[in-house]
Write a structure and sequence with these properties.
heterodimer; A: Non-ribosomal Peptide Synthetase Peptidyl Carrier Protein, Chain A; 4 helices; 0% strand; B: mainly alpha
Chain lengths: 76, 525
């Protein structure tokens, strides 16, 4: 989780990613951010996030994103 | 059959009467029959093309769902006996099968679109480069092919991604592809949004009828009173580019922005209004785009359904595909982290804007238009930290005057790029924009220059008032539905507004001698 939080803070230092759960709904993350996050996740966790997983529910909070990473790691 | 033609209004009236007269379970079938009649009106042979897309997509999607169901059943049955590696291998083999159906269907449909739309463009380039004399094919484009192909391919990809199962009923799917209000110029609907409201029975509800007709009238007002009137001036300006340079190009940018907005949003208002009369809810396609403060925001608010289509089905898949991730990793190793992470985003954005340009038309002006959009987006993205520093240093964020500056900057920047759509010629477009800075003829604006463009003083008065009404409605829409607000007004006020709207369409619509309303701009895409 620490690594993921670092990735997110690198993009938007002003956001409290530990509590925010409306990252997509409130348009905090845009499509450029999402792709940056996915490429960073790929480097750090060696997990490929497929396009069908790019839905608001998976990117609205750091926790949801971490769950996605864990699920994909488990499936891998 | 144009939305603004008498034959369409007659067709709509007959459809409306029949729709609420037939048994409710047959309503969607009537819509299908009506949609095919509407489509056949544009040329009966074009039915073959829309049928091919419908049948191929329906069948492929069904095959994909069958394979997915087979996979789920097999995994459930052999849950205990399979280890992780076996499951992974099995899933991969099934994915390969669904992928085969998906790719075959996409190749067939996008291939058909490409052949019909781009063959002559390729031939003209070959002739230009190699000085050959290949004959043009002059294929006639089936009505709305770009829109219904994209809508169908979106459905197919959603089924492939197991977002929902395929539609079993071919006739119901045919209605999704051909629904007559939206087949010509969108919005590009998503199956999971539209299917429920499209197939379910609808009772005659006064609210739907009233709100739908209000929206249709509002669309007619924008199209007939504003867009078609401005078209006269834009045509005059564009048909004599050597004569109209400098300040006249500023006029072209301004007039065309308003014309395109009134034309396209007016067309979509009519589309959404017609659907509402039948109880069908379509997705909104605009969210006050001319109030955008930057180009990225503008594209989130203009032609929304096309933008989200490109994002979901082209931008994301390309950005996260294995070869792009490999390229990103390699770039990080070679150029460092900062550049490496930009590679997938910018490369995918370039592909999206190239495709968006091509989608709009088979000519270089649209491709250059797309690439200029890409360039501005990338520059804005790269300048973001600089903007942030500027905003922090001078505390301008949120200030009314600065918001206004950002809105105007975006409006004029987008207008300048859009000039490629007006002149349809790349060197000419650049020359004309350049002339703004080199031709000092601003005084001609006040010396009767604008009165030579085919519009009279009363026309300009109607345009100014019409644009102000559009602006007022747009501003009122920020805090909720304008029709809800109107419905809450006393009856005399309400009816005064209704009558004023209808009367203005009848009296002020740009009809003239031998009236024939012009084609909607987006019909040609």
């Amino acid at each position: 989780m620490e690594v993921l939080l670092e990735i997110l803070k690198g993009l938007h230092p002003e956001v409290d990613f530990e509590t925010c759960d409306t990252l997509i709904d409130d348009k905090i993350l845009d499509s450029f951010d999402i792709i940056s996050i996915i490429t960073e996740i790929n480097t750090e966790y060696d997990v490929a996030v497929p396009a069908e997983e790019i839905i608001p529910e998976n990117f609205n909070s750091a926790e949801a994103l971490y769950d996605l990473v864990e699920r994909l790691q488990d499936e891998d | 059959m144009l939305f603004t033609s008498y034959s369409f209004i007659l067709f709509l009236t007959v459809m409306f009467l029949l729709y609420y007269a037939v048994p409710k379970k047959c309503q969607w079938m009537l819509l299908l029959a009506g949609s095919y009649c509407f489509y056949a009106y544009s040329g009966i042979h074009f039915l073959a093309f829309i049928l091919l897309t419908t049948v191929s997509t329906w069948y492929s999607a069904r095959r994909i769902t069958r394979i997915q169901e087979q996979q789920a059943a097999y995994l459930k049955e052999h849950k205990a006996s399979m280890d992780k590696e076996q499951k992974k291998r099995y899933k991969a083999s099934m994915k390969k099968k669904t992928k085969r159906w998906m790719l075959t269907c996409i190749l067939l449909n996008i291939g058909l679109l490409a052949v019909l739309k781009y063959t002559d463009f390729v031939i003209s380039n070959i002739n230009g480069i190699f000085h050959t004399g290949l004959t043009f094919m002059n294929f006639a484009l089936p009505l709305g092919i770009s829109f219904y192909t994209f809508q169908s391919m979106g459905y197919l990809l959603d089924v492939y991604r197991a977002k929902y199962p395929a539609q079993e009923n071919a006739a119901k799917f045919a209605l999704f592809v051909s629904f007559f209000p939206q087949v010509i110029q969108g919005p590009i609907s998503r199956y999971n949004d539209l299917s429920g409201t499209l197939y379910e029975p609808h009772s005659l509800e006064w609210r739907n009828i009233s709100y739908g007709i209000q929206r249709i009238c509002w669309g007619f007002f924008k199209k007939l009173v504003i867009a078609d009137r401005l078209l006269v001036a834009v045509k005059s300006l564009v048909s004599a580019p050597d004569e109209y340079m400098g300040v006249y190009v500023v006029l072209v940018i301004f007039f065309y922005a308003i014309e395109l907005y009134a034309d396209f949003t007016g067309g979509i208002d009519i589309t959404i209004g017609i659907a509402q009369v039948f109880g069908v809810k379509l997705a909104e396609n605009f969210e006050r785009p001319f109030f955008s403060k930057n180009i990225t925001e503008y594209w989130r608010r203009w032609h929304i359904t096309m933008g989200t289509w490109f994002k979901d089905y082209i931008f994301y898949p390309i950005s996260v595909c294995p070869w792009m991730l490999r390229l990103s990793k390699k770039s990080r190793e070679v150029f460092g982290k900062a550049i490496g992470k930009r590679v997938p985003v910018y490369l995918a954005t370039a592909i999206v804007w190239f495709t968006t340009g091509l989608w709009h038309g088979a000519s270089w002006n649209f491709i250059v238009w797309g690439m200029l959009n890409f360039l501005v987006i990338v520059i804005s993205q790269e300048l973001e930290p600089l903007y942030a520093k500027f905003h922090n240093r001078f505390h301008v964020s949120g200030k009314t005057w600065y918001n206004a500056f950002q809105i105007l900057r975006t409006f004029w920047l987008m207008g300048a790029i859009r000039i490629l759509d007006v002149y349809r010629d790349v060197p000419l477009s650049f020359r004309q924009v350049g002339s703004i800075f080199t031709t000092a003829n601003w005084n001609e604006l006040f010396n009767g220059g604008v009165m030579r463009l085919g519009l009279t003083m009363p026309d300009y008065l109607v345009l100014v008032l019409g644009a102000l009404v559009m602006l007022a409605v747009s501003l009122a829409g920020r805090s909720g539905s304008v029709r809800d607000k109107l419905a809450a007004k006393p009856v005399p006020v309400r009816y005064l507004v209704y009558y004023a709207l209808i009367l203005s369409i009848l009296v002020l619509g740009a009809y003239g001698i031998g009236y024939d309303s012009s084609q909607f701009i987006y019909n040609q895409f």
